[in-house]
Amino acid sequence: MIIDCHGHYTTEPSAFMAWRKAQIAHYQAGGTGPAPAMPALSDDEIRETIENNQLRALRERGCDMTIFSPRASGMAHHIGDESVSLAWTRASNDLIHRVVQLFPDNFIGVCQLPQSPGVPVANSIAELRRCVEDWASSAAT
Fold it and tell me: What is the spatial distance between Cα 92 and Cα 69, in angstroms, rounded to a whole number?
């Protein structure tokens, strides 16, 4: 088995990235009112973005699997505050988890951690546990 040890989801569904832009705009406008809701993404939307991009490239390169994480440049921990970072991180990690569920033979997920300037890194532990413990136990059942 040939494993690509470094892959990022750079072709997320457009609705996902539109939500991120709306989330940032909401924060920059003072965050009054409810935050934008994360849009529902269908499995077909996710499959299309993966099959036509990362999975195609994986196969063309002769690899079997990729260790897969959210878009590195999109993590943008410096944008927003701790609550914005946590919402963005959870949504990004949930999306990676869905890719892994849809393509378990081709992708191993890696989570992003919520980090914000001036916020203790210890505040990231809950998200790390959610990704590792919850998803590992759901895969075992």
Answer: 9
CATH code for the domain in which residue 115 is found: 3.20.20.140
For residues 124 and 138, what is the distance between their CA atoms, to the nearest angstrom?
21
Please give the full DSSP string across 54-80, using - where no structure is assigned. Answer: IHHHHHHTT-SEEEEEE-GGG--TTSS
Whether 22 is in a domain gets the answer no
Tally of domains within the chain: 1
pLDDT digits (tens, 9 = 90+) for 22-66: 999 999 999 888 889 999 999 999 999 999 999 999 999 999 999
User: What global pTM score does this model have?
Assistant: 0.92
Residue 80 tokens read as 């927003």
Domain that holds residue 62: 3-11+39-140
Confidence grade of residue 109 (pLDDT, cut at 50, 70, 90)? very high
| Total residue length of the chain | 141
For residue 41, give the nearest of 101, 84, 81 by alpha carbon. 101
One-letter identity of residue 88: W
Is the separation of the CB atoms in 20 and 74 below 8 Å?
yes
